[in-house]
Design goal:
This protein is of the alpha/beta class and 166 residues long. It has 6 helices and 8 strands. The protein has helices spanning 23-30, 39-42, 70-86, 121-128, 141-144, 153-165, and strands spanning 2-5, 34-37, 52-55, 60-63, 91-94, 105-107, 115-117, 132-135. The radius of gyration is 16 Å and the shape is globular.
Length: 166
Amino acid sequence: MILVSACLAGFAVRYDGRSARHDLAAWLVARGQAIAVCPEIMAGFPVPRPPAEIAGTFRTVCDCTGRDVTTHYQRAARMALKVAVENNVVVAFLKDKSPACGVTQIYDGTFSGRKIPGRGMVADVLAQNGVTIFPDSDLTPELVRPYVDAELLPDLEKWAGEKAAL
């Protein structure tokens, strides 16, 4: 099973109340090939909410008001891992730069817009527990093909062809 960040599937759950819809993520979820998860919502954060960033070597997460929300993000990671384990998730495509889901980059904790190499707390826990993680920029038909049910592969190829023709 594939896990995707819920914002990629088109759910308006980001800190700013918007989605980061990725058509392939939405296609996968609609066909039962992926599970959409928003760890922040699972951990009890509202929508919208103040943006948060990871700061320092001790991986403290603070929102832009200065509130330490590290324990919420730790809870989010545990909850996302539980969903992954219960659903035999082997691969996840996550919203990069997020303090929860970032795979290759996160913001530096200064709220200046500066990005640094790093992983969000959920991405880190998933990877440590054997889930292969990719950033949303890598969400392509080629990468998801091995994880899609065989009977849906012709539909995936057709979808990919239609998207390529646009």
